[in-house]
Amino acid sequence: GQNIDQPTEMTATEGAIVQINCTYQTSGFNGLFWYQQHAGEAPTFLSYNVLDGLEEKGRFSSFLSRSKGYSYLLLKELQMKDSASYLCAVMDSNYQLIWGAGTKLIIKP
Amino acid sequence: IAGITQAPTSQILAAGRRMTLRCTQDMRHNAMYWYRQDLGLGLRLIHYSNTAGTTGKGEVPDGYSVSRANTDDFPLTLASAVPSQTSVYFCASSGGPVLSGANVLTFGAGSRLTVL
Fold it and tell me: Among A54, B62, B69, B94, which residue is least crowded by beta carbons within 10 Å?
């Protein structure tokens, strides 16, 4: 079956750096997405990786290794507003999105 | 403001009742989707529509139906609600080519449904 694994919850300190990992086993691969979801709100798009390597976008970076079935989202200079759930999703060979359960990130002052 | 509007925001419903969740987008996106989100689980696709006039079944379609009479509207109907359909429902749309990896989803704010 298809599976996306990410930690359920992580805690980090304001101003620090945190890395949220995502491993996947899917039938085919057409890209990996990260979405941010604040409590009670809709998910919003953060990043998309289809080739191996690091994509940087301001304080957020996303890395992909297709051979390892692995991605991470790196958040730098953490702010209190970064407290949210981070959803990893993979598009399989049928262009269907497979979603992880999300990682709840708690930022402490 | 361009985006997706969902209604109602929240609803408590007796089991056996019929319920329609409304979804309207003003971005002229071709593809629309309905997901449910439950604690501890990833988003699960209920139904989708690649373009007006067509619909398809997702991962968990049983007990739900959709229609796509025009580009903007994509209502989700529960014919006879059951407690296991208690969930948060998100409507989403995407404007990229359907068979494309870079197909970013825009989500509505969600509809919280409780079936008693």
Answer: B62
